[in-house]
Amino acid sequence: MTDLERKLAEALRGQAEEVTPNLDAAWAEQMRRQRRPHRRRATVWLAPLAAVLVVLTSVSVATRVPTPSDQPVQPALPGQPLVLAKPELPDRTTLSEADKPVTLTDFTGQTDTWTSYAAEFFDPTGRALFCVEALPKGANHGAESQFGIKSPSCLPLSETVVRTGYVGENGGPLPAGKAVYLVDRKVHALRLYSAAGDLSLAKPVGPLGWDTVFFATIDPNSPPVRFEVS
Question: How many CB atoms lie within 10 A of CB 130?
Fold first, then answer.
């Protein structure tokens, strides 16, 4: 091999050594570029999936069955239950008056003006009754000239603080929208509550026997069902 051939061979080997690293770097760059689309595709695929998961989670929370701890706490109802007996319709001629009646209110019938009274009577057995009757305004008390077939309407007395009571009605001896109660004489204030919690204040209008008569204006469509006293 001549000197010229030897120099040419050495030059070719040097060039080969310079080219080889560049090929390796180019190959590595190509592989890196090929891997990028996979990452982008994964990102494109994962984004909608994440959105779906968020929606499903929101629906799950919205439709979750409430537990007892989730239920709103109902406010305590004021007072105590007010339970009244059903009125009786005794024959007025069989009743004897136990005390002077208490005047409640005037109201207009079909033609005349009437006055409602609260009274305490004894029936033929000696049982005390709290009665509400209506008579023509200015008339003397007696068995005659009673207002309609529901006068008097009478109720037995109980041993509770509210002895008994009567809620006015159309055709009765006390007009609708009014109510009367016989209450222990130690009571100074009577507060009445409807089923919705609406308050009506009853006022004392006079003594009857050993107790006090309280009179109230109420909602005729929502009569009192609970009471408080003081």
Answer: 29
* Distance separating alpha carbons of residues 187 and 46, to the nearest angstrom: 75
Question: What is the rounded distance in angstroms from the CA atom of residue 31 to the CA atom of residue 26?
Answer: 9
Is residue 147 within 8 Å of residue 135, measured between CB atoms?
Answer: yes
- pLDDT tens digits in sequence order for the chain, 230 residues long: 566 667 666 766 666 555 455 556 655 666 676 665 555 555 555 555 555 555 556 555 455 555 555 566 666 788 999 999 999 999 989 999 888 999 999 999 887 899 999 999 999 999 999 999 999 988 766 655 678 789 999 999 999 999 999 999 999 999 999 999 999 999 999 999 999 999 999 999 999 999 999 999 999 999 999 999 99
| Two tokens, residue 89 | 């319709």
Q: What are phi and psi of 17, to 5 degrees?
A: -65, -35
Pairwise CA distance, residues 133 & 168, whole Å = 11
Query: Within a 10 A sphere around the Cβ of 102, how many other Cβ atoms?
Result: 20
- Structure tokens, 157: 């007395």
